[in-house]
Amino acid sequence: MEIHLILLFMIFAGIVAVEVKDLISSLIALSAAGLALSLGFLVLKAPSLAITQLVVEILCVIILIRATINKDLPMVKDGRWFFNTVATVLFIGCFLVFSYFALKELPAFGQPLMRVSGEYLAGGFTQTGVANLVSAITLNFRSYDALAEAAIIFASIIGVLAITRRIGKTNEQ
Amino acid sequence: MSTYLLCFILFCVGLYCILRKRNIVKIIIGLGIIEYSVNMFLVLIGYRMQGRAPILAKDQAINNMVDPLTQAMVLTTIVIGLALMVLVVSIAIRIYEKYGTFDITKIRRLRG
User: Fold this and answer.
1) pLDDT over threshold 70, residue A173
2) Which domain holds residue B26?
3) In this complex, is the C-beta atom of A73 within 8 Å of any C-beta atom belonging to chain B?
């Protein structure tokens, strides 16, 4: 029941973040949704995820405020708003209908499929010696995932450096 | 079931933001909302009723834990989401330097 309240709060914060005119207020609403997500992870018995989400959320807000500070601009009114809105609502409606049919095939809330992770739970401590099973899976059973994650982070850093560099722009006037 | 549907409604809020808004920062905010909803959905799938966190203690039974596999995957996803956000924000800053606006309908000039 707490998770329903947290999800409703996240939907409300998301709608506020989408619809408010001021960009900084929008960012604050987004970070409220992220902190509610961290609380939701705690309710869903995932404390390591909650800690990570808290840190990542604060970093995201700092980066986004860096991007938008002193750059607020008035929204344009002209253009094809009617076609835009109708297409968006149609697409979201199709998505919700298909997701409703897909959700019937999923296991019910509260009874997960434990086919693979049952073995991790049974033999995780004896095989790895780590009490926190999430760390055991991340760093031992599925450590290639952690390796690929590090590779993606390095690719992202290289991309940021390549996008924001100043060298090579001397020909512009 | 209702929990999953609330999660999908949150996804749809982010999708509406991406498809409808014209400010690049709003589109990035929509991406963030979609990322939150997907993370929440994956953790919801692995939740077990009256379960406890997948951390071993001395005197507790092992057979009532929530699914640790989805939590490990979501841990990867959160960090990759941060990397994605940094990359998209740097592209947005660069576009603002070049065009002087965040409006995607004004970013039309083809320049090499």
Assistant:
1) no
2) 2-50+64-99
3) yes
| Predicted local confidence at residue B65, as pLDDT | 82
Instruction: Give the count of alpha carbons within 13 A of A10, CB side only.
Output: 36
- CB-CB neighbors (< 8 A) of B84 in chain A: 156
Q: Examine residue B90 and state whether it is found in any structural domain, yes or no.
A: yes
Asked whether residue B106 is assigned to any structural domain, the reply reads: no
Contact check, Cβ <8 Å, B44/A146: no
Inter-CA distances, A2 with A8, A18, A107, B38, Å: 10, 24, 21, 19
- Domain of residue B8, CATH code: 1.10.287.3510
Render pLDDT for A98-133 as a digit per residue (tens, 0 to 9).
Answer: 988 888 888 888 788 778 888 888 887 888 888 888
Kindly determine whether residue A23 and residue B6, on different chains, have CB atoms separated by under 8 Å.
Answer: no
The verdict on B36 touching A (C-beta cutoff 8 Å) is: yes
Please give, rounded to a whole number of angstroms, the shortest distance from the CA of B109 to a CA of chain A: 15
Structure tokens of A131? Answer: 């009490």
Domain count, chain B: 1
Task: Assess if residue B105 is contained within a domain.
Answer: no
Place of tokens 């947005």: B92
Q: Check residue A46 and give its pLDDT.
A: 87
Q: Which residues are B52's β-sheet partners?
A: B65
Confidence band, pLDDT 50/70/90 cuts, at residue A152: very high
Whether residue B57 lies inside any domain: the answer is: no
